[in-house]
Design goal:
Mean pLDDT: 85
Number of helices: 10
Order of helices and strands: HEHEEEEEEHEHEHEEHEHEHEEHEEEH
Shape: globular
Number of strands: 18
Radius of gyration: 23 Å
Largest sheet: 10 strands, mixed
Oligomer: single chain
Helix content: 25-40%
Structural class: alpha/beta
Number of domains: 2
Strand content: 15-25%
Length: 375
């Protein structure tokens, strides 16, 4: 009897959920002026296009494991000002004046579905006066997604915003979040963090969508970002053609026998850095002076954004996870030369790490030394 009542309640909840489900928009550009409370500021920030990048070079005995996902390209972008809109979650979903949702910043329908079912009615709303710009986006707590997905949204936008605009940012902000915004001329005093248990209703909310689909990159936007940030922070002192090896020894996907072959890399002129131990400013300066970067796949490779083009980028991957296109498309958008080096899997302590050998290290160095810094 109890089970029958439980099933009946579940059916009723599902019915009410579907009846009350709001309309969902996936692009401010595609919807144009049809969005409730929308005023178009600039309809031509960027144009949707299919990506066409050179096929990556693949190194290593397990090269047949590489099956990169197909790039989807860049987005059409519009700068819009909404009246009566609410920022309702850390993932950037915006509730418009008519109750419909602009879900583009959440990337995927499954994320929106989860929010609709579990979190929609569990936040309190606060009013925010004046003009604001939304920096919210799904995965923005991750270094790569912040650098490569959030910050390029400012391309073509900053000089179109009101002088007194403020910026709504995620509730969890690391020092590198703040430092990267400061490099674009946005100090903490002009930002406010959206708490996880609140929604903010704005008099006026400015919005510009991601410059590209998650995992892809807009060449114009990332080049603008590089020039703006490096122009503010500068390069490190010393040679302007450094070769960097970025270790992941402090986290997963590290190379377990890194020390065995590190002397060979050092003899080839590489400097080892631990990006996790560097401030954002120091990371920018280091990579802005690099013309060759070798690193296991990870968020630290977002720093190739700061390298002068054309740099050589060699991404070391696991054969189990050799389908991610993000570093390939970022390197291509920036005009860098890119290769994927497939290492061997090494499972330890319930985590997946990597192991390289002499043959793979030789291939890495041969590719690196054929590049712009060949000696």
């Amino acid at each position: 009897m109890q089970n029958a009542k439980g099933r009946k309640r579940a059916v009723i909840r599902e019915f009410l959920f579907r009846v009350n489900r709001p309309a969902v928009h996936w692009s401010a550009s595609a919807a144009g002026g049809a969005l409730a409370g929308a005023r178009t500021i600039d309809a031509a920030l960027g144009h949707a296009s299919k990506a066409s990048w050179p096929e990556p070079v693949v190194l290593g005995a397990a090269r047949d494991a590489v099956r990169l996902a197909t790039p989807l390209g860049t987005n059409g972008r519009t700068l819009v000002a909404f009246s009566g809109a609410r920022a309702i979650d850390q993932n950037g979903i915006i509730e418009l004046a008519d109750g419909s949702l602009l879900a583009e910043p959440a990337w995927h329908p499954d994320i929106v579905e989860e929010w609709l079912r579990r979190r929609r009615h569990r936040v309190r709303s606060r009013r925010q006066r004046g003009p604001w710009f939304s920096c919210l986006l799904e995965f923005s707590c991750n270094y790569y997604h912040w650098i490569c997905d959030v910050l390029p949204r400012f391309s073509g936008v900053l000089d179109r915003l009101p002088a007194d605009v403020r910026f709504v940012v995620p509730g969890a902000m690391a020092p590198w979040h703040w430092d990267s915004l400061a490099a674009l001329g946005i100090p903490p005093s002009r930002c406010a963090q959206l708490p996880r248990d609140e929604a903010w209703a704005f008099d006026e909310l400015y919005y510009a969508g991601p410059a590209a689909v998650c995992g892809d990159h807009d060449p114009t936007a990332v080049a603008w970002l590089r020039d703006a940030v490096v122009g503010t922070i500068g390069r490190s002192a010393g040679p302007a053609d450094r070769r960097l090896y970025v270790t992941r020894r402090l986290t997963r996907r590290s190379i377990v026998n890194e020390d065995e072959f590190w002397p060979v890399m050092a003899d080839a002129g590489f400097t080892l850095i631990e990006a996790e131990r560097l401030t954002f400013v120091d990371q920018v300066r280091a990579f802005a002076s690099a013309t060759c970067v070798v690193a296991p796949h990870g968020a630290g490779l977002a720093n190739i954004t700061w390298c002068p083009a054309p740099a050589t980028v060699i991404e070391i991957v696991s054969p189990r996870f050799a389908s991610q296109r993000c570093v390939w498309t970022l390197a291509s958008a920036l005009g860098h030369r890119h290769a994927i080096a497939v290492a061997a899997d090494c499972e330890r302590d319930s985590r997946l790490d990597l192991e390289w050998n002499g043959a793979l290290v030789r291939e890495i160095l041969e590719f690196a030394l054929r590049g712009p810094l060949a000696t």
